[in-house]
Amino acid sequence: MYLCLAKYMGWGRAFALAHRARICTPQPSGPTLHPLISAQLIPSAMRDKISLASGYGNFAVPAVAAEAAIRSISSGTLPVSDAAGLPALREALAQGYQRPITATQVVVTPGAKSALFALFKTLLRPQEEVLLPTPNWFGFGELITRAGGRVCPLPLSSESNYALTPAQLEAALTPQTRILLLSNPNNPTGRVYTRQEMQALLDVTRRFPELYVVSDEIYHLITFGAEPVPSLLDFEDPHERHVVVNGYSKSLALIGWGVGYLVAPAAVAAACAAWQFATSVAVPAPNQLAALAATQAASAIAAELLAQLQPTRARMLAELAALPHVPHGQPEGTYYAFPDFRAYLTPHLPAAAAAAELVASFQEAGVQVVDGSSCGPPGFVRLSYAVPEETLREAMHRIALVLQARQLASDLGC
Question: Contact at 8 Å (CB) between 246 and 182?
Fold first, then answer.
């Protein structure tokens, strides 16, 4: 933002005004801007908020899904679904995997978060551990603790592209580990674990017959690699301990329709359905019928979403590549980038506080982002490119100005 001031006032006047306002003086909560300077640093257009923080894309509802719901509502009396979901939807979902799955293993839930919570309440005994490779989705932790479990983070490194090796996994497992929780593709990093990587990890887990492996696959169709994302259910399950959680709000664009599901061994699925019957209601039939139509048209819907995302993904990666000192990788799935802004953190602050201060500076410039500290490592930021391209261009311009200003302040010894 100092750069904005220089742009409008000239470098000499900008430096003088900065000095008079003491904007370089660290405050107890980190560097702040004098109100006089703040008004001049940020043009009025930049006070309009742009969100790159949302977990939802700017996707239209697939026509086939909307039409199916309208037909259901127009038919008169709506059917009341079993707690586990409409048989036709459960059967269609069961047929979507390489290995034999039956409809009795599928439970349709009011969103994927409900599927996760039902699963954790069913599987976890008090204070049992969930091993969670990080970075990962920020919502897992509260679901696990509310279900009575304990989160055990397993930090992975950006320098190895967040690889999880069999040796790392085996060293992290303890007698108290009840669940290994994976995400493929990963939110926030966009990392996709290959079939070979998954098989190597499962060669370890099969030696722990009481361990459940849960895979969150809600972004499974949003992938830009040559190969499809492998599902956990495509692999042998010798101890009947593999569970997949998925939903319709990401890969199939049913945003706000509240349809998720889990696929589990039959006994686990029945227990989750019983939990849902006792504590909630079945997903309304029109929503399930919309989901059924989306399932049947999944390939076409996903292809349309990928075509919409390709230009903004390219724009995001190009903008990040132009930023000095910002490693960012090549996300293979989801619609997020997870760049490393640690070079721009305020050195005298603790890492988490410095990360929060950086995120606040983006917000002051009118760009909302997800602080990577909520997903694992401070100094990283999750950015969504599931927005219109012009919106993304403007947001990245503002981010670049903030980083340039912070670099200028650092160079001046502020």
Answer: no
